[in-house]
Every structure is written in C-alpha cells, then in structure tokens.
Amino acid sequence: MIFLKKFIYAVIIILSFGLGILGGMTRIALPFIALGIAFSILILLLDYQRSIYLVALYVFLDFFIRQYVGSPLLGSLWDELLFIFVFLMWMYKTFIDYKNRGYRWTPMEAPLIFFFGIGIFLLIINSPNIKISIEGFRAVVQYMLWYFLVVQVLKTDNGARNLYKILVLIGIFIGLHGVYQYIVGVEMPATWVDSMEKGLRTRVYSIIGSPNILGSLMTLTVPMAIGLVYGEEKIGKKLFYGIGSIVMMACLVFTFSRGAWIGFMVAALVFILLKDKRLIIPAIIAGMLVIIFVPSIVDRITYMLSPQYISNSLKGGRLIRWITGLEMLKEQPLFGVGLGHFGGAVAMNNDIPGTFYMDNYYLKTAVEMGIVGLMAFWFLLYQAIIWSYRTVIKIQDKYFVNLIQGAIAGMMGVLAHNFFENVFEVPMMVTYFWILVGIIMYLRTTKVEKFDNI
Known about the structure:
about 450 residues, 21 helices, globular
C-alpha cells in the first residue's frame, strides 16, 4: 500500500511538471508553471484531506484564472476540474485509508437528495427551453455538491479546524484589501450610488468585483473570526483574530451594502443568542460608535426610507423588480416559469427577454421553481441550520463549540442577505456556505454521533 501511495504521488508530480512544460510552450506560461508547481508541492505534502483546502481558496483561484490565464474555456471550467480532482482524492482515500474508507453518513444527505429530486421533477415537467433549464438546474445544484466532498475527504478534527481557519484568513486578507481601497478612494461605476446620494466617495469591492458580495463574504467570515477569538487559548492568536474581525467589519462598512449590513445585524444577533445574551449591550454600543464616526452610514440608510429612493426604486430599482417577480409568480405559482428562465445569471446569459437580476434569491427561486421549489429549498436550508444547531448544543469540545457558533451566525447572516441580493448566484458564496455545513456535519460525526453510539 505504501508503494501504491508513492506511485500515485509520482504520477501526479510528473503530470504537474508536464503541465509546467506545456505552459513553457504557450503564451500563458506563468500560470501553467505556477499551477504545476502548486500541485507538485501540494502532492508532496499530501495527506489527501489537504486537497479540500484548495476549495477554500476559491475566491483567489477564480480571480487568478479569470484575470491572468488567457483561456475563456479554462476560466469557465476550472471549478469543475477542481471538483473532479477532489473527487479523485476521495476515491484515492478508499485505496489508502482503510480506517476511513466507508461512506460517512450525516443528516444532510436526505434533504439534499430531496431538493435535487424536486429540481429534476420540475426540470421534466416545466422546461420551456430544456437547454436553459438544464443550465439553470446545474447553477442551483452544482455548488451544493461540495458538501459531500467536504464531509468525505476530511478525516481529522485538525483538518476541519484548518479548513475553517483558511476561510477566516481569506476573509481577513480580502478585508484588508477592501480597507486599502477605501483609503486610496478606488474608482467605482456611477451606477453603484444613486444620483441623489451625496458625499459617498467610493464603495469597496476588492478582488470580488461587487460591493454587495464582498459585504456578504464579510458577513460570513466576521462571526467565524470572533468564534476563533473565543476558541483560541493563546493571547497572540486571540489578538490576531480580534484585529482581523475589526478589519473585516471596517471593510463591511466601506462596501456601503445595505443588504449586507442587515445580514450582518442578523449574524451578530444570532451569535449573541448562541454565545452570551449579555453581549447585546456591548454590541449596541459598538454599533452606535460606528454610526457616530461614519455618518455616511446614517445617510445611506435614511435615504433608503426617503420618498425619492422609493420613487426611483419603483421606476428601475429593487422594488419594481420585486413587484415584477411577484406578478410573475401569481401567473405560475405552483411550478414557476422554469429553471434558469428568470431573475439570475443563466437567464441573463441566454438573453431571455425582460429578465434582470431579481435582487432577492428566494423570490428568484420562487419565480423559476414555483412554490414547490421554494418550499423544498427552504426545507433544505432549515435542515442545514437546525442540524448545525443540534450539533453545537451537544458537542462537548468547547473549542469547536465556539467555531460552530461563529459558522452558524455567519451562515444565518448570508441567508438574511439573500432577501436583498442574489448571493447564492455567486459560486464562491454558495460554495463557502456548503463548506461550512460540511465542516459542522463532519464534526457531528466525530464529536457527537461517535459518543452517542457508545
């Protein structure tokens, strides 16, 4: 078995060097060489579970490949290739790790498969254009599949902890970049701010390209970092994650994304309820200090309540989009207009007449999949949250309790943000959401169910 492991390592290393040589003969040499070296180093260090760490780097990989690799095909397929690679690592695990070779069952398989089944049912009975519907189904389901690989490829609590920390470190790094953008006053499209809003000099977006999605990433990772502040024992680490939390919160403020702010308030409330209700007073004080020192927050929120904003929004903004979506839902309430046929990227990419981004992922889901699809989706999300909560109240390891509390709070914040933005239309965000669910359910199998069965 040791020989087989070394043989597989050698084959992948040779392929990686071959990738580097291929890069040397093409105009995109540097990216290919970098990928070849990265995979070589990864395999030399592997432990198969480390392959899942690559998924946590989604935001960087996506940015790098789309910006610097001169191949549109690779830019659109790289995440599928990564999925295949991690899937092969799972298969590899069955050959080299007898102790962990069996399938690791969790409470989430049934609701996920149920939702997939509802999607296939709607695909069969309600597809005005089958090609678009299949693409729409893929866009909804594909990134949920990461859940299965996270649960199966992780093999140690240390691996779960590392994966969690990588997500937090990514949030801190991107948060720092966002703060830097605000300091230098990075340029932004004029359409990101209403013409009636004065004094808002910029909205940050980092490498993500969207203030709203950057805000959603901060909403997800800030509670996770605070969970590490509580979980770590060493003062240096507590200080690091504490400062990181402040940086990310500053970045969140500078996105000036009202939907992300609302999502973060939900995340903060959930974290307080899970951790310690006495934190509500410090949280209120901190919020008041932010309002005092960043008055543009008050301006942006109060403008949202003004007659001018409502009038503009009813002409070409979020409110008219919601009204249009509700009217379409009334026409086809049960099964919707068809997957991929309205309100999201698939419909926009296929130039379906009259479509636009809905700015409400749940309403978008309802219009495309009907009440049947929306209820199945909400049932899936309920199961993800309720099983995460059941895990955190039964786990005995205080370190992981803190981490899961942070994860649940961040997840709830993103779900709240979905009422005001198509957050789950962004592959990175839905991937990170299901990575966290996977981490929690993995810990459930090692920290809860193992002891329940004794």
